[in-house]
C-alpha cells in the first residue's frame, strides 16, 4: 500500500477553523504526493463529546465525511477507546508539535502504539495557507478544489445552511460582516503586535455597499453579545444572523463552552458568509474559510486595509502593550525551559523536576502583572 498520513487534532485553545486549516494544509501535501489522508481528531479537541455526536466518535466526522476510505483503526490494533485519549508521543511514527504539552507522555509509554512504516500521524500545522493574517488570493481556487474533493459536509448540516439561506438570503443582496470580540484582541496583540480596528471602520465599508444596494440585508456573524447588539441597533430590520451560541466578553464559545454544537454553529456561519455577495471582516479564520469555500466571493479585510492604524492603536494602548509584552517574554521562557525540560526528563529526571518548579515560579511571577 502507498503512504498514508493521519492528521490529528491540536488541543485547547485551538478553534474550529484553525483545526480545519491544519487539515487543509496536509490535504494539499497528500494531493501533490499521492498520500492517503485520514483525519482523526481525538479527545483533546475542544469539540469532542464523550458520548459522540450523531453516532460518530471522531469529531471531524461530526461535521464532515471521512476524507478517504481508511480510518486509523485500519493501521493499528489499539482499541478506539484508547486511541481517543492517546498522546501522540505514544505512536511509533509520529511528527509531533510539542508546544501542545498534552502530547507528551511518560518515557515508558512512548512509541508503544505501532503504525506501519509507511503510515505517519501528526498534529503539526503547516504554514502557507494563511500568511500574516490575510487570505492567500493566489491559492483560493486550489484550496476550493481540495475542499470540493475531500471535505464533504454532512447532510444534516447542509440542510440547516440551505434552510437559512432560503429564508433570509433568497431574492436579496446580502453583505456579510464578521466581527471578533475581546478574546481576539489579545491574540492579535500577542502574536501580531496590532490592535483590533474598531467596528466603525467595518461599518464604513458596509455603508458603502448599502449606498449601492439600499435594499440589501446585513448578515452578522460574531461570538460577541455586545457586537451583535451593536450591529442590530445600527442596521435595524435588515440585519439577519444565525442563532449561534454567544460567549461572555473576553472569551469565545469554543473556550467557554466547547462541544460539538459550537463547532457546528461556526461551520454554518462560515458557509453562510461564503454565500453573501460581499464580505467585510478582520483577522480571523472564520471569514478566511468563507473565501476558500467561495473562491469568487468579493471581500475586504479591514485589519489589512487599516494596518497602520492597527499598529498605532497597539502601541498607544499602554496597558495592552505592557501586558502582552510580559506574556510574550513568559511564552519565550516557557518555550526555552520546556525544550530543556524535555531533554532533562530523559537524562536527569531529578533536575527536570527542580527546573519545572522554577519555571512555574517564574511564570507565576509574570502573571502577577
Structural account:
This protein is an alpha/beta fold. The protein folds into 3 domains: 4-122, no CATH class; 171-306, Rossmann fold; 318-367. It has 15 helices and 9 strands. It has helices spanning 16-33, 60-63, 80-83, 140-150, 155-169, 182-192, 199-212, 225-235, 253-256, 260-274, 285-293, 302-305, 307-316, 318-347, 349-367; strands spanning 4-8, 36-40, 94-95, 119-122, 174-179, 217-222, 239-240, 278-281, 298-301. A 5-stranded parallel sheet has the order 7-6-5-8-9, with helices on both faces. A 4-stranded parallel sheet has the order 2-1-4-3, covered by helices on one side. Helix 1 (16-33) crosses helix 4 (140-150) and helix 5 packs across helix 10. The longest helix is centred in the C-terminal third of the chain and has 30 residues, at 318-347. The chain is globular, with a radius of gyration of 22 Å.
What is the CATH-assigned architecture of the largest domain? 3-Layer(aba) Sandwich
Number of strands: 9
Question: Could you name the CATH topology of the largest domain?
Answer: Rossmann fold
Query: How is the main sheet built?
Result: 5 strands, parallel
Q: Beta fraction of the residues?
A: 5-15%
Mean pLDDT: 89
Overall outline: globular
Number of helices: 15
Q: What are the main properties of this structure?
A:
single chain, five-stranded parallel β-sheet, 369 residues, alpha/beta, 49% helix, 15 helices, Rossmann fold, 9 strands, four-stranded parallel β-sheet
